[in-house]
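User: structure tokens for this one?
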Amino acid sequence: MKFSVFALSLIVTTFLFSSCSPKNSEMIVAEYGNYNITLDEYKEAYAKSVGGMEAAKDDSLEQLKTYLDLYVNYKMKLRDAQVRGYDVDEELNAELDEYKHQIGKSYIEEKFVVQPGIKQLYEDDKIEYKFQHILIKPDTISRKEASEFAYSLIERIKNGEDFGELAKKYSADFASKDVDGEIYYIRPTQIPMVQLTDILKKSTPGQVYHKPFMSAAGYHVVRLISKKPVRYKIRVSHIIRDFKNDAGEPDTANALEVIKAVKFFIEQGQSFDSLAVFYSEDPGSKMKGGDLGFFPRRSMVIAFDSVVFNLKVGEISDIVKTNFGFHIAKCTGEMDYPPIEELNESLSQFYKKNIHAQRMEQYKDELKEQFSFKVNDKLFDYIKADNIKTFFDEEIGESSVYKSIKDITAFSFKDRTFSAGEVMDFSIQNKNNTGKIVDSSFVANLINTYSGKILFDLKLEDLEKNDDEFKSLLDEYRNGILIFRLQEEEVWSNVTLDSTGMKAFFNENSEKYNWADRVSYKQIFTTSDSLSNLIINKLNEGEGLDSLFVLYNEKSPKIESKCSIDLVEVNKNAITQQANKLKNIGDYSNPFRFENGWIIVQLVDRDKARAKTFEEAKGECIGPYQEFLSKKAEKDYIEKLNSIYNPKKYYDLLWNAIDKSSN
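Assistant:
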């Protein structure tokens, strides 16, 4: 028996519930047998069902009562499962253990790596960095030579050589080398290299970082210029004069003269918006008073961006020259940095693509420290001493190297040790290991992989003892399995589709099963108006539509490709409607447009609206009949539980479950 994963959406629902006083926590809202349901327990369960107690503030007493009824039924079922011994069933516990490992790794990653990582990225992304870098590519030289040369550049910069000049001379980043290797203000979510972000966070402005870092492109020498809090988005208006006169000829002097005059008018108190309408040569913004709307850093050319992002709201710039002309800018607004919830999707995508793998390895190192992980270095002495070249495959257990090391400790966690034999036996499952030489490096990789699995097993054990959320997750799943098995035995096993019972069900509900007016017809489709007229002429001359269909019908993806169509509801589509308009059996229509062509239909038969017979409705009855039987079996089962546990429900106490004070 496998429990369907459909229950997971219920299981992982966030637990949200309001607090209650000690007096309220002792209130009993229901009893069943020798067991009670307290107000606290009810509140917690109800909160999960509706998405938190805040969402329940406007719920009615009827809603609270209905849920209590369902919850009491649920609790009686769980007790019945315990009485039957389901909770100690080996198969059930094996399935729970499988689920624990299946969901556990994802739970650990999400709670201890992904969510903290995204929160940290959110905070990191509130700082922007301007820096210089020099890229040394190991293309014409080796990696070792590239690394050594990068280190030599760091020493030269520390000794006073100009970073920008060295960038121009040596950097392989052609986008930045001619501007002194400078990278204009950039945020961590715009940097796909997590190592670079880490370096910038640790760097001191003005100082070259003490060592290069390696990326896929090569070795980078980095010097932080400055860092500052991010202004998320600012709103700016501008007035621009381009470098051309009215004749379209270059005229920088005239543009400068006009923009200086505009600057003077602004200083004299004239309206910026009005001057923009009159003087600006930006057709996209001038009629809006020069408004460019809100935009983030790096949306504009650097010459403009560097000025406007230093303006306070309401402040007006001096004259700014860019490749487009002379500008005067005014900062008119600033957008607050959004809460993490608004940015979570984009942060999550960036994090998982660029950061997660490295952070996961860091977390494994943290777990190794938490559980006192140690590798037995003596193991590698035995491997080095083996002079026979051994290849790893399914026969590894017969090799001399395996026999010589299988009982030697490979690694340990606190008081638990794992042998080299365990590591190699586990690693045989991975076909990627097949054919590789069993040397120190290979065995170290095997240990790293296997110990990683053990790490997560140890963390799961720790979570089961100390993490209430994880324990609740497993409890919900365990309860789900118990309920599933009860439903199988008490409900679904009693759903038997017998013809006699189904016919009785049909007779009781026959008014629900009816035919609408239907028609049978013949059809022929063409994409040519002239061909459809030819077919009409041949029909008028007495030829049958069946033979004409064989000769002239063209296929269409929207039309069933056959001549005779048997009994279809008259309002199904335009074709059936046309067939229904025909007065007599055998009448045919004139060609009419349908989709990308013309259709001619001929009426074959009519069937007036009527009740369906049992045979006609049998297929339609199966689903409702199954549902009827399931509800009856469920009702019978609940009645049996009621007779055993005699539940009592104190509905008048349920208002205490909801805080109405803020309504």
